[in-house]
Amino acid sequence: MQAISVNNVKFVYNPNTNDEHTALNGVSLEINEGDFVAIVGHNGSGKSTLAKLFNGLLLPTEGDIFVYGKNTKDEENEFDNRKNVGIVFQNPDNQMIASIVEDDIAFGPENLGLDREEIIKRVNWALDVVDMQEYKNATPFKMSGGQKQRIAIAGVLALMPKVLVLDESTAMLDPKGRKEVVDTITKLNKKHNITIVLITHNMEEVVPANKVVVLNEGRIEKVGSPKEIFMDNELLNRCKLELPVVTEIARKLAENGLNIDKNILTEEELKEALCQLL
């Protein structure tokens, strides 16, 4: 089933002014239910604009976006579209409104008018999914960046979205925090079949994705698997994207005469390849 359909979308900031800027120009994209899509590109390529278009925070200047068949431009679809597509932003502190984790996650379901029993059920489920149940009664403001972001994800999950969009949600985190978040959304995709859209400039985070979309100056340059994207050196150079460290190491080893796959994506694959050589 098609979750999101982007049809020839253009988006212009401050149209008909001296500050007019075209962020997206003729973008078309299909995201199917159950996909893990990574959208990558350098700063200013249009990634975050596209993220906000997915659930109607922004509306296309031209073209259309459909969420489960409903056009985001139609006002009567606004509630359903925002219910179906949840967004987690870069700074988790900006998404937290309560001093206790449980209350923070309950805020969204309460505003949907759900009964107390359903709210408790959703809060506990969301905490279990992000492995933060033990912090239920803690204050989020004393947590690490990775823990805060997992709580922010839980807050969105409690609304039961079908699609989870993460807009540069790991940009402010250290490597440990980034791993926590990527592991969490990978589990959401594989175990709970939640469609994931990860907006990032960090190429190491795209490895779990089944589809990578490369944006450059408001246009889609290429769509493919992580390996297909990493093998396209001309594309990476043109779009100012770097290989994951593991893949870069594999390439250097191959260039120096070792019989090793140049397109290794994970540490586990690299370890296995090196063990076989030894």
Give the helices and strands, then pairings.
Elements (H helix, E strand, L loop, with lengths): L1 E12 L7 E12 L3 E5 L6 H8 L7 E6 L2 E2 L6 H7 E4 L12 H11 L4 H14 L15 H13 L5 E5 L7 H18 L2 E6 L10 E6 L2 E6 L1 H5 L2 H6 L6 H11 L11 H11 L1
Parallel strand pairs: 3-8, 3-9, 6-7, 7-8
Antiparallel strand pairs: 1-2, 1-4, 4-5, 9-10
Helix pairs in contact: 3-4, 3-5, 4-5, 5-6
What does this structure look like?
Helices cover 37% and strands 23% of the residues. With 278 residues, it is α/β, with parallel strands linked by helices. α3 crosses α4 and α5 runs parallel beside α6. The longest helix has 18 residues. It is globular and about 65 Å long.
What Rg, in angstroms, do the CA atoms define?
20 Å
Mean pLDDT over all positions = 91
Topology order in helix (H) and strand (E) letters: EEEHEEHEHHHEHEEEHHHH
Structural class: alpha/beta
Binned, the helix content reads: 25-40%
The parts where pLDDT drops under 50 for at least 5 residues are none
List the total number of helices: 10
Characterize the main sheet: 6 strands, mixed
Strand order of the largest sheet: 6-7-8-3-9-10
What is the 3D form?
globular
Measured distance between first and last alpha carbons: 46 Å
